[in-house]
Amino acid sequence: MEGGAHEFDGSTFKECFSLSWRNPYVLRLAFSAGIGGLLFGYDTGVISGALLYIRDDFGSVDRNTWLQEMIVSMAVAGAIIGAAVGGWTTDRFGRRASILVADFLFFAGAAIMASATGPAQLVVGRVFVGLGVGMASMTAPLYISEASPARIRGALVSTNGFLITGGQFLAYLINLAFTKAPGTWRWMLGVAALPAVVQFALMLALPESPRWLYRKGRADEAEAILRRIYSAEEVEREIEELKESVAAEVRERGSSEKVSLAALLRTASVRRGLVAGVGLQVFQQLVGINTVMYYSPTIVQLAGFASNQTALALSLVTSGLNALGSIVSIYFIDRTGRKKLLVISLVGVILSLAVLTAVFHETTSHSPAVSAAETAHFDASLTCPSYRSSSSSSWDCTRCLKAAGSSECGFCASGGGELLLPGACLVSNNTVRDACHGEGRLWYTRGCPSRYGWLALLGLALYIIFFSPGMGTVPWIVNSEIYPLRYRGVCGGAAATANWVSNLAVAQSFLSLTEAIGTSWTFLIFGALSVAALAFVLVCVPETKGLPIEEVEKMLERRELRLRFWAPPRHDVDGNGNDSGKNTGV
């Protein structure tokens, strides 16, 4: 399988799972390493529910928004450092060793948070978890990729993406399960220690990556592992590929150990690989995925749904769709190809963002009017100060929620189920909210009632359905197979770091953007960035479907621009008229 490119002659998805009967060792390697993806997803998703109960236990957290943001964002900050350090540790100490370190960090972070007596301990625990997430985000797919046959490599690496999204879905389920338990948030955050212990035990019994071992001169160990992964006729070709790759590195640099930034930038194949790999990771975040995953309840409320229950239920639905999309990716990644899947994904994302842009524009421009009579129905002291002092009679719900004054304002919708009729603009606090609910009305503080709200739900669902199989998983797969062996850890770490930096930038700017320019313009910006991402994929990202990892390097060295992504890749023919499996198209 590793000796050349392969035509698709059946379902790679079925072959991947039939492998459990023929060679369960490969799946054992893949799923053991993939538990790191489960931890990655769980620890990034669980905090949204846990924070609600942390605020109840710690008054300082409840009173200070910046402290809430710090508890959430310190995991992302830790992940940036973890991804950068992980790139170095995977090359220096090995892929398996880095996964073991990540497990220790996961366990330590979960234990610190579960036993926290104050916000400071929670922040420290989130940093530890973030370091583990950062290391796991680039090491786990790299380990799986280097221990997988080329034909099913994409499907096996996709299992890591599935476990990430599955971890996020599990986090929402755990949040719901422990809402009535004593020490609610401690259980939510502490549960992550269990899979960390399981993976640590499993990885102790598994070998190091065979390609890393070969790169370090431990050829006998590498060959023994490869013989357990490949059939007898395939393993000799794989060993020869590795010999050629390492020998070429030694000839090129005179040493197989020293890696420098200058060397990375001077080597055409590495430079082109970095452009594709880092670019994909950055655009994965810039198309707005974390605005949907982190803020889906807020987005639903912005679209006109006042109920917290509806907002929380959608969080579970979106994470479920995300996990389902990862399963779709496992099926199609080696059948369709990386580049085609990316293009289809981005076209769908662009259309979904267009729907969301239109919905929020209509929601904002056609919100219910504010009625003086409806507002006067409540005590005068409850009227929004800005509305009371205004001489204009053209107030609507949107203007009420954005009113500047001594107090924030909310909109109490008309009674009788007619949400689009004029309502009241009142001061926003718990007393007024309860008074509004007491009359059987809905209380809005983030978005306004709208007849188009269900279209926002449709847009969010479509966004996840299109994003997850392509832009959700393919960037990690491409980064696990696009770099030359000696630079793989460093380059993968750089790409993962770029992903987390972009993640932090988008997550921290979304709410500020919606307040400054409006939700519709914010989604329009994400749509424009998605168009740029599509152009980038067409021009800069190569198709690596079915290619041996060592062959990808040769393809990048002679890279050609190939915009006809739907066409099958061309193959060079050697002097004997045999297909050598060399893909010259990008």
TrEMBL record:
Its main location: membrane. GO terms for molecular function: myo-inositol:proton symporter activity. InterPro entries: MFS_dom, MFS_sugar_transport-like, MFS_trans_sf, Myo-inositol_Transporter, Sugar/inositol_transpt, Sugar_transporter_CS. GO terms for biological process: myo-inositol transport; transmembrane transport. Residues 29-545 form the Major facilitator superfamily (MFS) profile domain. It is a multi-pass membrane protein. The chain crosses the membrane at residues 29-54, 66-85, 97-117, 123-144, 156-178, 184-206, 274-296, 311-334, 341-360, 452-478, 490-511, 523-541. PROSITE patterns: MFS, SUGAR_TRANSPORT_2. It is found in: Membrane. It comes from the Eukaryota. One of its GO terms (cellular component) is membrane. Keywords: Membrane, Transmembrane, Transmembrane helix, Transport. PANTHER family: INOSITOL TRANSPORTER 2-RELATED, PROTON MYO-INOSITOL COTRANSPORTER. Belongs to the major facilitator superfamily. Sugar transporter (TC 2.A.1.1) family. This is Major facilitator superfamily (MFS) profile domain-containing protein.
